[in-house]
Structure formats: structure tokens, C-alpha cells
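Handout, page 2. Input:
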Amino acid sequence: MGAGKGKPVRPLQKNFLKNFSEKFWWFENKLLTLHPLSKSKSMAHKEEIFE
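Output:
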């Protein structure tokens, strides 16, 4: 029984992170559509992160 104690927390954390990242990307995409000039800046910034 002790091992099952922490089990419900993990899916909640996963869902929270998933929802948070989805909201973040939606918000960023919304900003990019409102300010097309910032798109190139954002892409350059993403490339820096992934390299």
C-alpha cells in the first residue's frame, strides 16, 4: 500500500505540465500572429536553445 501512495501525483503533474506547455505555445503563437515581426526573433531564440 505504501508504494501506491505517490502514484496519483505523477499523472496530475504530467497533465499540469502538458496543459501548461500547450497554453504557453498557444499564447506564444497568439503573440506571433499579433506581432509578425517578432517571429524571426522567436525562431532565432528557439534555435539557440536547441543547439
